Amino acid sequence: MKIISSPQEMKAFSTSAKAEGKKIALVPTMGALHDGHLSLIDKAKELADIVVVSVFVNPTQFGPNEDFDKYPRQLEEDAQACQQRGADIVFAPSANDIYAPDASTFVSEEQISQYLCGQSRPKHFRGVTTVVSILFNIVKPDCAVFGEKDAQQVSIIERMVRDLFIDVEIVRAPIIRDENGLALSSRNKYMDRLERLGATRIHNALVEAKKMIETENCDNVDRIKAYVINNIANAKARVIYAEVVDAKTSLPVSRHETGKSRISVAVWYGQTRLIDNIQI
Ligand code: PAF
Q1: Hey, which residues are catalytic here?
Q2: Residue whose CA is closest, atom 1 of ligand 1?
Q3: Residue 143 Cα, ligand 1 centroid: separation in angstroms?
Q4: Among 26, 27, 30, which is best to mutate for testing ligand 1, by the most ligand atoms less than 8 A from CB?
C-alpha cells in the first residue's frame, strides 16, 4: 500500500491506472478510522480493482466554534488499518495542497442542505460538497462509498452528482454499531466509556420508535418526533433535531410511508455532537 500526499501524484496514479482499464473506488474519510470506515473499504474492494482511502480533515466543513482543532488526527494508525484491510492507496493531502490561499470557488447543494444538520451547521454541507468534488477531480474514481450514518450527507452527494453530471457512482453502506448499539463515529473518541454507554439511548429510542410505529400503525410525523425526543432527552442528552425524512432524499416528509422513510436525529450528548438514523 502506498501513501500519497500530493494531488499531482494522485492524479497521475489514477490516470495511468484508468489507462490500464482499472476501476477505482474512493472511500472519503477524515481519518480516525473505526470499523465503520473499514466496512466501507470492504465494500469498495468488492466494487473496484483499486481502493483509494482519502484521509483529510477538511477545514471548510467546520464552523468557527466547532471541533476542527481537536478532531482526532492519527495518520500512521489509519494507514496501518487501511493496509491491513487491503486498501491500495491512502491519499492524505494537507490543507494547503487542497485549497489555494485565495481559493474562492465552492460547490453548494441548496435544497437538502437547508434541513437537519444544515440548520445548526450553516456552511457544513457546502464544505462537504466542495471537498468531495475536489477529491473526485483528483482521484477520478468510478465509484465512491459513503456510510449511511451520515444519511443526509449521502443524499446531498447523490444530488450533487446527479445535478452536475459527475461520472461517479455513489454507493451507500450500512451503519456499523458498537456492541451496545451506538453508531460508530470518530467523534465517539471524545466520550469516555460511561458516556458512550449512556449515548446508546439514542439508538434505543430510534428502535423503540420503529416498534411503536409498526405496532400502532402510526404515520403521524409529529407524534413520531415527540416520541423520539421524549425517549432521548435527559440531563446529559439535548436533542438538536428529530425529523422524519424521505429515506432516499433526506427531505422532511409530512406523513410516514412504511419502508420509505427514515428518522434522523442529532443530539448533544454532553460535549459531543452525535447523529444517528433508522429506516422505518
Ligand atoms: O463523512 C466524512 O468523513 C466527511 O464529511 C467527508 C465525506 C470525508 C468529507 O470531508
Answers
A1: 37
A2: 29
A3: 15
A4: 30
Query: Starting from the edge strand earliest in sequence, which strands make up the sheet with 272-279, in order?
Result: 237-246, 261-269, 272-279
Cell of 117: 444538520
How confident is the model at residue 116, as a pLDDT? 98
| pTM summary value | 0.98
Instruction: State the CB neighbour count (10 A cutoff) for residue 104.
Output: 6
Between CA 275 and CA 266 the distance in angstroms is 4
Which pLDDT band holds residue 186 (cuts at 50, 70, 90)? very high
How big is the CA angle at 39 (ends 121 and 148), to the nearest 5 degrees? 35
Q: From residue 67, give the alpha-carbon distance in Å to each of 78, 222, 271.
A: 20, 32, 10
250 Cβ inside 6 Å of ligand 1: no
Q: How far is the CA of 219 from the centre of ligand 1 (A)?
A: 32
For 84-133, the pLDDT digits (tens) are 999 999 999 999 999 999 999 999 999 999 999 999 999 999 999 999 99
Distance 55 CA to ligand 1 centre (A): 9
Indicate the residue type of 277: N
Q: pLDDT tens digit string along 137-161? A: 999 999 999 999 999 999 999 999 9
Of 99, 94, 17, 101, nearest to 52 (Cα)?
Answer: 17
